[in-house]
Amino acid sequence: MAITDDLRKTLSDPTPLYFAAGTADLAFQQARKVPALVEQLAAEAPARIEAVRNTDPKVVQEKATARAKEAQAGLQNRVTEFIGGLDLDFKKLGENAQDLALRGVGVAAEYAVRARETYEKVAEHGEQTVKTWRGEAAEDIEELAIAVEGKPEPVEVKHEPKPAAPAAAAQAKPKPARKTPAPRKAATTKKPTPPSE
Predict the structure, then answer these.
(1) pLDDT in tens, 113-128
(2) Burial 29-38 (b: 16+ CB within 10 A, else e)
């Protein structure tokens, strides 16, 4: 029955859905920046096009040729240094290869941990986004306020009898009535989400 329990746990875990919601929300936030970038490019485009039109093709070709010659000379020097610096001791090469392989495994493990952390952060962002969409964020804040402040005690409002004579009413100063706070919404119980592994 372990397979059935694993499947049930996997299918009831909302984390992938929260991850998708978080990704969609982050993509939407980035998409809102696109119009400003388009306007900026549209403003800069005429100046760049004019600069390209005014450049002399011969000058550009000469610069490209000079850069290519420099790159070729630098590459030849590096290759010569590398070949000259090779250690022909195969034992050292084997140790270096083993060391590099172990480093590669360590780097891969580190990237896996970072990927998991990023996944969890985006899933948390998605969970907050879903709560905002549902309006549950306000309920959580109310629950937190109740936990911090404690439950409010009901306050009784005493109504004073109205005087019979209007002259007595003019002489008596009216006392402001105390306002009772609106009853708070009862906390809803939520199903705990299973811990993600």
Answers:
(1) 999 999 999 989 888 8
(2) eeeeeeeeee
